[in-house]
Q: What sequence folds into this?
């Protein structure tokens, strides 16, 4: 059996090539999925996202607000209920502080008149710390007891006028729909 030169080279180099391949793998490892993901280029993150005027989202009250204790101009705090996303990008994060004020407050009165309470939501912050003006008005009136008062006067005479109406109360966790009151260009967090 005679071997020609090319057959001899193939038989000799094949084991050498295997040893070199094994050495390279042992030295550098097999590329992992994360390395493959790094090599594959995804779309770059947007550098700026426009938060349009009139964008609706929800905030929640953090404290009880009552017409009995509130006075016009008192500062109020709320929290953003859920992440506000534009094109899948968060522009206002969940639990971000929202500032507001008591717009009007009227205690319940005699003659069965219920209390009156109006609040105004004013602003919050974007993920890149820009102040955004908001608009919303959520008013709530206490139960009016005028009908009850009239019946009490008939049954008990003038002492029936001592019947009080209910105070207007907004409980903690009450959801309020708000809207952005201006357009903002937001740089999302990466």
A:
């Amino acid at each position: 059996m005679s071997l020609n030169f090319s057959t001899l080279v193939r038989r000799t180099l094949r084991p050498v090539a295997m040893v070199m391949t094994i050495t390279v793998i042992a030295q550098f490892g097999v590329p992992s999925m994360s390395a493959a993901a790094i090599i594959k280029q995804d779309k770059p993150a947007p550098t700026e996202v426009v938060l349009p005027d009139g964008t609706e989202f929800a905030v929640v009250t953090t404290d009880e607000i009552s017409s009995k204790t509130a006075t016009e101009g008192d500062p109020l705090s709320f929290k953003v209920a859920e992440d506000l996303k534009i094109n899948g990008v968060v522009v206002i994060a969940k639990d971000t502080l929202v500032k507001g004020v008591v717009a009007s407050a009227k205690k319940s009165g005699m003659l069965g008149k219920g209390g009156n309470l109006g609040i105004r939501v004013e602003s919050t912050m974007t993920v890149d710390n820009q102040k955004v003006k908001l608009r919303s008005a959520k008013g709530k009136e206490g139960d009016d007891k005028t009908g009850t008062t009239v019946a009490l006067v008939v049954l008990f005479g003038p002492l029936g006028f001592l019947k009080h109406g209910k105070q207007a109360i907004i409980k903690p966790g009450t959801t309020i729909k708000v809207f952005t009151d201006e357009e903002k260009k937001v740089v999302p967090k990466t």
